[in-house]
Amino acid sequence: MPIDLKSLSYDELQETMKDLGEKAFRGKQLYEWMHVHLARSYEDMTNIPKSLKEKLMQQAEYTSLTVEDCQISAIDGTRKYLFALADGNMVESVLMHYKHGNSVCISSQVGCKMGCRFCASTLDGWLRNLTPGEMLDQIYAIQHDTGERVSNVVVMGTGEPMDNFDNIVKFIHMLSDEHGLNISQRNITVSTCGLVPRILQLADLNLSITLALSLHASNQEKRAALMPIANAFEIHEVLDACRTYFDKTGRRVSFEYSLVAGVNDSEEDARELSELIGDMNCHVNLIPVNPIKERDYVSSTHDAVLRFKNRLEKNGINVTIRREMGRDIDGACGQLRRKHLERKD
Ligand code: SAH
């Protein structure tokens, strides 16, 4: 296997240069080209000698994503990118403009094996994990394309980040490294469907990222009907892992709750949810489900969403309704990639 240059940490890259018979500072220069100047190829790297570039071309791999498609919302300027990876696989990322800065939502895997019933990303199954470099490059390519600085990153695109644990952790370290984009860990959110052992492992790493848990239901039975992972890890077990996460990191956990009409959006559901998480230092993000054509789930009405929110608030729970960004483009996870796959068939 050739060396995957963009996935090497600052220290690893300097070690690699020494292994190749070069000075360690070449590693620092290369790191800066890749992770600060966001160079797309060796050609951009003006202070790297030709002999080293040739050596790298033989022994290492330096790949960059290419923009395959980009849809721009006429409503709010949200951009949905379809990127081609070096092996031809496709992943999606989204750029959203908020008052507090630009936020990018990245994918962590090609496809997904978690099988959540309402999600488009899992319909074609899982193909492979993304490397740390490929995750970083989604942000780099967007920053390069728009010329605007990205300040927040959410790992909420296609894939289950906790199912790609080592790469996600390395990605977080590299993204927040002062020698790279230097994005504060407080501005990074990782969303999981609830792989308990991985949540506990993450809690021990002492990162200051936000953990988001995809909860989507107020009891075990309803959750299992929407999310197969609930059969492996029971709802109380997952919530206990979130409590541990808060205890160890001091970071308030976010719960994602996609509202599906007639399934999980009644006031009784809201009451049950309040009881379930009422003791926790947490925040609930309500998202009217984004219907996908392969399933007949219907989004809750605006009234139902408001009633649900009010009920939680009355019970003292922090709650926001996720602003729907880019409603006029293929907003739901995995829809753009699927459209592309369908076109190819
Ligand atoms: N696998 C991770 C991260 C990717 S999904 C996780 O499960 O959290 C990001 C979020 O979008 C999750 O909360 C997921 O449940 C939600 N989601 C997926 N498809 C959706 C849809 N069609 N409508 C609303 N939310 C959806």
Descriptive report:
This protein is α/β, with parallel strands linked by helices. Helix 4 packs across helix 5 (165-175) and helix 6 (196-203) runs parallel beside helix 8 (235-249). The strands form three sheets. It has a ten-stranded mixed beta sheet with strand order 3-4-5-6-9-10-11-12-13-14. Strands 1-2 form a two-stranded parallel sheet. A two-stranded antiparallel ribbon has the order 7-8. The chain has helices spanning 10-19, 24-35, 50-59, 132-146, 165-175, 196-203, 220-226, 235-249, 267-277, 302-314, 335-344, and strands at residues 3-4, 60-61, 66-72, 79-84, 90-98, 101-105, 109-111, 126-129, 152-155, 188-192, 210-214, 253-259, 282-288, 319-321. The chain has two domains: 3-61, DNA polymerase, domain 1; 66-344, TIM Barrel, CATH 3.20.20. The chain starts with a strand and ends with a helix. Helix content is 35%, strand content 20%. It is built from eleven helices and 14 strands. The structure holds S-adenosyl-L-homocysteine.
Radius of gyration: 21 Å
Distance between the termini: 31 Å
Question: Treating each run of at least 4 consecutive H or I residues as one helix, how many helices?
Answer: 11
What proportion of the residues form beta strands (DSSP E)?
A: 15-25%
**Average pLDDT, all residues:** 95
Shape: globular
Which CATH architecture of the largest domain would you pick?
A: Alpha-Beta Barrel
Topology as a string of helices (H) and strands (E): EHHHEEEEEEEHEHEHEHHEHEHEH
The largest sheet is: 10 strands, mixed
- What's the name of the CATH homologous superfamily of the largest domain? Aldolase class I
